[in-house]
Write a structure and sequence with these properties.
Elements (H helix, E strand, L loop, with lengths): L2 H20 L1 H26 L8 H34 L2 H27 L8 H5 L3 H14 L2 H4 L4 H11 L7 H4 L4 H8 L40
Helix pairs in contact: 1-4, 2-3, 2-4, 4-6, 8-10
C-alpha cells in the first residue's frame, strides 16, 4: 500500500465517522439544506440585493444579497436539523439513525473517491508509479467506468475525443496555426493522449506525428534554405 491507498482509507473513514456521528436524517437534511441554500441564493440574490441600498458599491451590494440568502437558509436549516435530532432522541430512534448514517457516509465516501478518480483520468498523474501500484484504485476505476456508462449520451458525447477536438478548434484561431499544428488536433491523437498511448510508434523509437522543429505562421518570412557547397577535391 502507498500514500494513495492511505488517502482513500482516510476519506472513507472520515466520511463514515461523520455519518455515524450525525445520523442519516441529519446527513440527508444537510445535503438538502446546502442545495436549498445555493438555489435560494441564485434565485433570490438579485431581488434581495435591490433592497440593500445602504451599500453604495453595486458589485458589493449584489454579493451581499447572494451571501445573505445563502447564510439565512443555512441558519434556518441548522435550526431544523437540531429540532429533528431532538425529536429522534426522544423517540429512541437515534441508534438506528446513526447506523444508517454510517452506511450513508460510506456511500458518500465511495462516490467522492470515484469522482476524484474520474477527474484524474484527464491528467498525466495516472502514469505515475504510485497510481499504477495502488492496491485500492482498481475497484474504484471499475466503478468509475460503470458510472460513466450511466451518463446520458447527450452528456457523454462531450467527453468524446472528437468533441474535445472540435472544442479546441473553436477556441483556437485557425489562421494562426500551420497544418503541422492542426493535425495534432485530430480526434485520434487526442484519444491516444487520453489513453496514455502517445509514444514510440515503431521499434526505432520515433514519435508518431512529431511536431516540426519550426512552426511557420501566416505572414512570417520563410526560413532560409540550407545550401551545400560542393567540396573541392585536389
Amino acid at each position: 500500500m502507498n500514500w494513495i491507498d492511505y488517502t482513500i482509507l482516510g476519506v472513507l473513514g472520515v466520511s463514515v465517522l461523520v455519518g455515524l456521528w450525525r445520523g442519516l436524517v441529519s446527513e440527508v437534511l444537510a445535503l438538502v439544506i446546502w442545495i436549498a441554500a445555493f438555489w435560494a441564493a441564485w434565485l433570490l440574490g438579485p431581488t434581495v440585493s435591490a433592497h440593500l441600498e445602504v451599500i453604495s458599491h453595486p458589485a458589493l451590494r449584489v454579493a451581499a444579497g447572494y451571501a445573505l440568502c445563502f447564510v439565512l437558509v443555512l441558519v434556518l436549516g441548522a435550526l431544523l436539523r437540531f429540532l429533528i435530532h431532538r425529536l429522534l432522541v426522544s423517540t429512541g430512534l437515534s441508534g438506528t439513525d446513526r447506523l444508517f448514517g454510517m452506511v450513508f457516509g460510506l456511500a458518500r465516501g465511495v462516490l467522492l473517491v470515484c469522482v476524484v478518480v474520474f477527474l484524474c483520468q484527464f491528467t498525466t498523474f495516472t502514469r505515475e508509479p504510485p497510481w499504477r501500484q495502488s492496491l485500492l484504485l482498481p475497484p474504484f476505476q471499475s466503478a468509475t467506468i460503470w458510472l460513466g456508462q450511466q451518463v446520458p449520451p447527450s452528456v457523454r458525447e462531450h467527453f468524446h475525443p472528437a468533441a474535445m477536438s472540435e472544442s479546441l478548434r473553436g477556441k483556437l484561431d485557425p489562421a494562426a496555426m500551420s497544418n503541422a499544428v492542426r493535425e495534432h488536433l485530430d480526434p485520434a491523437v487526442i484519444s491516444d493522449a487520453l489513453h496514455g498511448k502517445l509514444g514510440p510508434a515503431d521499434p526505432s523509437g520515433a514519435l508518431r506525428k512529431p511536431l516540426p522543429a519550426t512552426i511557420s505562421t501566416p505572414g512570417a518570412a520563410p526560413a532560409p534554405a540550407a545550401t551545400v557547397s560542393p567540396s573541392n577535391h585536389p
